[in-house]
Write a structure and sequence with these properties.
Strand content: under 5%
Radius of gyration: 16 Å
Structural class: mainly alpha
Shape: rod-shaped
Helix content: over 70%
Number of strands: 0
Largest sheet: none
Number of helices: 2
Distance between the termini: 9 Å
């Protein structure tokens, strides 16, 4: 894998991590502002948690690709 491909992979992973962060923020806002409705709060909190884990995994993958440059 040449350096150009690695830079492209790093940039792609970084942008995907940013997108998952945005989804997590929106889910947090929904969970906090939905009042006391558990049928809305619980799925929003689950989506927030899942996207945070996904974002962390993408950032880890980005670090692994960056180390191999």
């Amino acid at each position: 894998m040449c350096i150009r491909d690695r830079v492209l992979a790093i940039a792609t992973l970084d942008e995907l991590a940013n997108l998952s962060s945005y989804v997590s923020r929106v889910s947090y806002a929904v969970a906090v502002n939905c009042g006391q409705e558990p049928e809305v709060m619980e799925p929003a909190a689950a989506i927030m948690a899942a996207t945070m884990v996904i974002g962390g995994g993408l950032q880890f993958a980005e670090a692994v690709v960056a180390i191999t440059v």
